[in-house]
Design brief:
By secondary structure, the protein is mostly beta strands. Helix content is 11%, strand content 33%. Strands 1-2-3-4-5-6-7-8 form an eight-stranded antiparallel β-barrel.
Length: 166
Amino acid sequence: MSRAFLAIPVVALGFVLSPAVANGAVDCPAGWEFGPSLKLLQSDGWNVTVATAGRTVGGNAVAVPPNQGALWRGTGEGGSDGMTVAFGVGFDNGTVLHYTGVIDQATGAVTGERPDGVTWKATANMRCPGAPDAAATSPDTVNAPPGDLNAPGAPGTPGAPGAPGP
């Protein structure tokens, strides 16, 4: 592992131990996960895409400059603890960039800042494992679809009106 990437676990550990993160409400109990790639829009106009899987950032990366000039290609490494992200990208031209960010626990949106002050945001929200989509993190017990006999509160289920007693 390159020295440039050694700082990533230390940064990630700082996020995990941060009181602001530890006290935040968690709407995705299992923790948020990436899709197959993480696409970033940066405040300096660059677009960066890096390969991801689950909570891991790793694999091919590409950066597109604002003038749509020559692409930068490289490799990303790092990950997420489900509440924060920390990763680095080493490009073939020798440039190494470090990214840290936080995951909005209500939506899965990811935003962050590099050490040089460039801010970034992901183009898509992270996924909540087990939820039908990133916005729905728990079953809707009030508006169960008609005819769903397995839905909470459906006729015959424990606690529903008319359910058999214990």
